[in-house]
Amino acid sequence: MLSNKTKYALKALQVLAKEYGQGPVLISEIARRENIPAKFLELILLELKNQGILQSKKGKGGGYFLARPPQSVSVGQVVRVMEGPLAPLPCVSRTSYMRCRECRDERSCGIRLVMKDVRDATAKILDSTTLADVLKRVEAVVAGREGLHYSI
Amino acid sequence: MLSNKTKYALKALQVLAKEYGQGPVLISEIARRENIPAKFLELILLELKNQGILQSKKGKGGGYFLARPPQSVSVGQVVRVMEGPLAPLPCVSRTSYMRCRECRDERSCGIRLVMKDVRDATAKILDSTTLADVLKRVEAVVAGREGLHYSI
DNA sequence: CTATAAGTCTAGTAAGTCAATAGGGTAAAT
DNA sequence: ATTTACCCTATTGACTTACTAGACTTATAG
Known about the structure:
The structure is a homodimer.
Chain A: H1 4-18, H2 27-34, H3 38-50, E1 54-57, E2 63-66, H4 75-83, H5 110-128, H6 131-151
Antiparallel strand pairs in A: 1-2
Helix pairs in contact in A: 1-2, 1-3, 1-4, 1-6, 2-3, 4-5
Chain B binds a DNA duplex (30 and 30 nucleotides) through helix 3.
C-alpha cells in the first residue's frame, strides 16, 4: 500500500502538470483543490523540490511548478522518491538491492523468483507512465462520459 | 515492501510444500532450515492455521502441514492473509475496496487508473502462482545450475 | 498414568513509521 | 517596510513491526 504522503504527492503533481507553463501555483490552492491538509502538503512539496522534481518561487506571486515538462516525469520516479523501492523484497530491487539476512541461497529462492516478476511488472507500468499520460487518460475518461451523456 | 512476517510465511510454506504428504514438520525444524526466529515463526504458523492454510498436530510426532495440496495454495492467498490487499491504494482493491477520503471524483482520478493497472498486473502474477509452481521453478534453476556445472 | 514433547495463547516491549500539527524563520515582491 | 509565501525544525499520538517471555493444553510413548 502506498502511504497517504505518496498519494498526496501524486495528486499535487497531477495539478501542477495540468497548470504546467502557466506560472507558479500556491500550496494553498493545491491543498484546496485536492482536499489535502495544507501544512502536510507543504512538507511533501518541499521534498519533491529537494529531489529536483519541482521548483518554487518565493514571495508574492510565488508558488510551486514542475521542474520539467509533464511528459518527462514518470510516476515511477515519484513513487521511488516518496516511498522507496518498487520491489516487494529488497533482494529483487534494482535501485537499492540488499540481500535477505536469513537467506541461505538467493539464486534458488522461489519467493524471490516470483517477487522479481512482480517488481518487473510494476516497474514496467510505473516507469513508462508519465504525468502527461495520466492527464491524457483522465481526459479520455471525461470525454467518454460526456459522449455517453449526450447519447442518452 | 512485504514485511518480514510475510516473507517468513512464504518461506515456511515453501518448506511445507516440499514435505507435503510426508507427515507434520516441527516449527523448530522449519525455523532452523530457513533461519527464522522460532518464536516469531510460531505466531506466523498459528495465523496461517487460523486462516485455514495449514493444519497442525499436537504432542509427540506433531507439527504443521499444509491443509491442501501445494498446487491449490496460491502465493496471492498467502500475501493477502499476511499483508492485506494487494492493491497499492484502497480505492483499487477488489477484495477490500474503500474510497479515498479526500477524493472528489474517483472515476476521473488519474492516479487511480494507473494504480489499478498495477494491482491487476500484481494479482495476475500472484494469484496464478501456486506453491507447487514455486517449487517447480526452484527445481528448474537448480537443474540448470547442475547442467552448467557438468559442462565446465 | 505420567513424563515429556509439541503446539496454543496471552502479554509485553523496544523501535520505528505515519500522518499530521505547531510555530517560527527567510526570501522576494510591491 | 510590509506583506506574501515558501523554508525548516520539532513534536505528537496512534499504529505497526519484529520480536521475546512464559504459562497452558494436548497427545503420545512407555
